[in-house]
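Researcher: Please translate sequence to structure tokens.
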Amino acid sequence: WEQIRHSFAFCEAHGFGPTISIFEPGYLRAVHTYQRAGRLPAGSLVKLYFGGDYGLFGRDAGVSFGLPPTETALLAYLELLEGTGLPWSVSVWGGD
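Model: Translation complete:
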């Protein structure tokens, strides 16, 4: 949490809108906590990362991370984003 506080304080002090990487649903819940407390820097962009069947740098199937790149997983994130007004984007690592 200290790193998040430091990074957000830096962004606020310099007028930067951070790009916030979301690798697991719990990360997005942390963003909600900051937004509800009025501590989320203006201009924040949420990037939803989905984990494919392959590692980030590997060519063989292996352990990945987060939610799979499926419609159901995207809908779960969209439900968490509902009402926040936060802009978002999507990326799949280790998959198509």
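Researcher: Any highlights?
Model: The chain has one domain: 2-93.
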